[in-house]
Design a protein that fits this description.
This protein is an alpha/beta fold. 44% of the residues lie in helices and 19% in strands. The strands form three sheets. An eight-stranded parallel barrel has the order 1-2-3-4-5-8-9-12, surrounded by five helices. A two-stranded antiparallel sheet has the order 6-7. InterPro entries: IolE/XylAMocC-like, Xyl_isomerase-like_sf, Xyl_isomerase-like_TIM-brl.
Length: 256
């Protein structure tokens, strides 16, 4: 059954002050797993200890491109030590988006090294991989077409797919069987056309349909994320959990 996790970037302000205490709070709210975006100076042993204490599963780790290129063996060792299987390419800076063909070749190499170590490389999208093209197709599709699924799988950020003007349900179906992780987030559009992330249920994203499709297409984890929180981030993830509980009561199938 698909489980519910949290991308810890959402509560980064609290993690900086109290890493262990924040993870305890995340677990208390009912999240089953966490996706890391840094370890705040903790050793693999310290991370493992707090995961064991709280019962949280290490879902994945967003790992910067430069670390994937220049310190991959260290990242692999750290993730294996904490029991994490998924290493995730999280973002590509604007200054590097004119060299997509080279990035794709890097992904092949990184994916092969991860696979050889028993781990899996995933790519996490924003909107630009859909609005930018490579040889006439969205970059996101070019990545998955040119890199074998044995070397890279999908972490679909459904909110950014929607913001880019594409249908998240079509992308969930398109990459069924290759999409173990899905980011669930909500957003509102501002007057200037930009987006601001909000707590689940407060925005315009078709969350229920996306969550249903993720479960139907055998996603292992649905991961709540909020890039920006207008109020205390722990209050935000608590509110999003209330939406999830209401969704489950209405027939949703996420395991909480």
């Amino acid at each position: 059954m698909t489980q519910l996790g949290l991308q810890l970037y959402t509560v980064r302000d609290h993690l900086e002050k109290d890493f262990e205490g924040t993870l305890r709070k995340v677990a208390e709210l009912g999240y089953k797993g966490v996706e890391f975006a840094g370890y705040y100076g903790r050793t693999p042993g310290e991370v493992t200890q707090i995961l064991k204490e709280t019962g949280l599963t290490a879902i994945g780790a967003h790992t910067p491109y430069d670390r994937l290129r220049n310190a991959l063996e260290e990242e692999i060792a750290f993730n294996k030590a904490i029991g994490n299987r998924y290493i995730i390419f999280p973002y590509l800076g604007e200054d590097e988006r004119d060299r997509w063909a080279e990035v794709i070749e890097d992904l092949k190499v990184i994916g092969k090294r991860c696979a050889d170590a028993g781990l899996v490389l995933l790519y996490h999208n924003h909107e630009f991989e859909l609005t930018e093209t490579l040889d006439g197709q969205p970059v996101l599709d070019a990545i998955y077409e040119r890199v074998d699924k044995e070397l890279i799988q999908v972490e679909l950020d459904s909110c950014w797919v929607s913001y880019a003007g594409f249908d998240p349900l079509e992308y969930i179906s398109k990459y069924s069987g290759r999409m173990p992780l899905l980011h669930l987030k909500d957003m509102v559009k501002k007057a200037d056309g930009s987006a601001e992330t909000v707590e689940l249920g407060r925005g315009i994203v078709e969350l229920k349909a996306i969550a249903d499709a993720a479960v139907d297409n055998q996603a292992e984890w649905i991961i709540v994320e909020q890039d920006y929180c207008a109020k205390d981030s722990l209050d935000s993830i608590a509110e999003s959990m209330e939406w999830v509980k209401a969704y489950i009561q209405e027939g949703g199938k996420i395991n909480v």
